[in-house]
Design brief:
single chain; 499 residues; alpha/beta; Rossmann fold; GMP Synthetase, Chain A, domain 3; five-stranded mixed β-sheet; five-stranded antiparallel β-sheet; 30% helix
Length: 499
């Protein structure tokens, strides 16, 4: 059965309720009819520049109206959108553009220099530093993409470092959006406050949910000012807010928050990293009238499981049950299905499972396996889980050493490579340390070459020059020598305080 292209949701919402507010960003409010027109003009501009179905369009923009226009415009013409974190540095951007064979880059003036430098290194890819400049008059006439055509190429990092392009098809995104709508009981009445970057799969899904249902999306760039978040909750009568543990921890620092009346706030969601059970309890006390959905997902299929709100108090450490229309089970290393209490790798089956990694058959074969039907594949998550007698899932640990900080994936190797840029550095080991606010804090342990001195502050500045902000270590510790285990390897468990 075919599905409607994910990019057609906006047009249908505009037909149903043209005057309804679709988007609020700062002081700007945009109706569905206005947004549909802006997206159509942008889509026409893409077509004029030769963008075709499946072409990769890189988008480097902060959370604002232009980002939504670019994302929806790319989807409308059947391109594969590639949203990048707005703080991306040119080295990583260049690598992504080159590997993805991008057609063009859309950014703003603030990121134009970075984008041009990266695009030049990637082979001279065209860069447009204005959404308006790229837009054109006239209808965006194009062929509708098929179910298996790429809708998004989301970049994530593996334990060996380097970005991998996760291929999400039209069917992948349409299915998972509908499934989330079902279990959240998401309707056109929602007013969603999104402080997560739209470059983050969890953030992008908020946009897709609102376009699917005709709800209102309120965009904000982070939680640096938690008081403003509360102001937005009240001012816009927010009904739902997604967050990662960091977001909720920052909000919980506000005195008197539990005494604020937020009668419209219906639900909160958490994904990106597991929420500590102590934080779960604090969130429940602070927002007693809001449902809390504890969710688990991966870029490779967006969402995997969700814990029903009526189970949160009883099972606060659980990742919940598979999302509607999907299936999960736990296997040992030999592929045997395990029972309750046994720890093994979580396997996922459903129409949201990625088509694989772009131009990376080796990585694809590691994660994708044959399903029960010839045309079907299932995904090995590379995460260890257990289940209880009722089938509820519990995250145990990751097989690799990727760090999840602020809900973002931080590959240790990328951070280590940045620190090795200081010629005085002898060895580096970057580890994730459990942190109540961040989920995991990025710590770098460094030793100097003989006769050399290292300055932690200078190493942090070096990281800031070459890495996204969430990848910069919270702490850099200088050692005479890094500790080693019995195999002679650097003892990362000891450094992370887990040995």
């Amino acid at each position: 059965m075919s599905v409607e292209p994910i990019g057609s949701d906006l047009g249908r919402a505009a037909e149903r309720a043209p005057d309804k507010v679709a988007l609020i960003s700062g002081d700007r409010s945009v109706s569905y009819a206005e947004l549909d027109n802006l997206v159509e003009r942008f889509a026409a501009g893409l077509l004029e520049r030769g963008v075709e179905t499946g072409d990769r369009v890189a988008i480097v923009l902060p959370n604002d109206v232009d980002a939504v226009i670019a994302l929806q415009g790319g989807l409308r013409v059947g391109a594969a959108i590639m949203p990048m974190h707005p703080s991306v540095k040119h080295e990583r951007l260049s690598q992504v553009l080159s590997r993805a064979e991008a057609t063009l880059v859309v950014c703003d003036e603030a990121r134009a220099d970075t984008a041009r430098e990266a695009a030049q290194e990637a082979g001279g890819i065209p860069v447009h530093d204005s959404v308006e400049e790229l837009s054109a008059d006239g209808p965006a006439q194009h062929e509708q993409p098929g179910d298996t055509d790429l809708a998004a190429l989301m970049h994530t990092s593996g334990s060996t470092g380097g970005p991998k392009g996760v291929m999400l098809t039209q069917r992948n995104l349409s299915f998972v959006t509908g499934s989330i709508v079902e279990y959240l009981r998401f309707s056109e009445e929602e007013r969603i406050l999104c402080v997560l970057p739209l470059s983050f799969g969890y953030g992008l899904s908020q946009l897709l949910l609102c376009m699917r249902t005709g709800a209102t999306l309120v965009l904000e760039a982070g939680v640096a000012l938690p008081g403003r978040i509360v102001q937005l909750l009240e001012q816009h009568q927010i009904t739902g807010m997604p967050g990662v543990p960091t977001v909720f921890q920052v909000l919980l620092t506000l005195r008197g928050l539990a005494d604020r009346e937020l009668p419209h706030l219906r639900f909160l969601t958490n994904a990106g990293a597991g929420m500590p059970t102590t934080t779960v309890a604090e969130v429940r006390r602070t927002f007693p009238n809001a449902e809390l959905h504890l969710m688990y997902g991966q870029t490779e299929c967006v969402r995997i499981s969700s814990l029903p709100p009526d189970q949160v108090d009883e099972r606060p450490a659980s990742s919940g049950l598979p999302i509607p229309g999907s299936e999960c089970w736990i296997e040992d290393d030999d592929g045997n299905v395990l029972g309750p209490g046994e720890v093994g790798e979580l396997i996922v089956r459903g129409e949201h499972v990625t088509a694989g990694y772009w131009r990376n058959p080796e990585a694809t074969s590691e994660r994708m396996r044959e399903g029960r039907r010839p045309e079907e594949r299932v995904m090995a998550t590379n995460d260890l889980f257990r289940s209880d007698e009722d089938g509820y899932l519990y995250f145990v640990s990751r097989r690799d050493d990727i760090i999840k900080s602020r809900g973002e994936k931080v590959p240790p190797r990328d951070v280590e490579e940045a620190i090795y840029g200081d010629p005085a550095v002898k060895e580096v080991a970057v580890v994730g340390v459990p942190d109540r606010l961040l989920g995991e804090a990025v710590h770098a342990h460094v030793s100097a070459k003989e006769g050399q001195q290292l300055d932690p502050a200078a190493l942090k500045r070096l990281c800031a020059e070459h890495l996204e902000d969430y990848m910069v270590p919270q702490r850099i510790v200088i050692h005479d020598e890094l500790p080693r285990n019995t195999n002679g390897k650097i003892d990362r468990l000891l450094l992370a305080g887990r040995a």
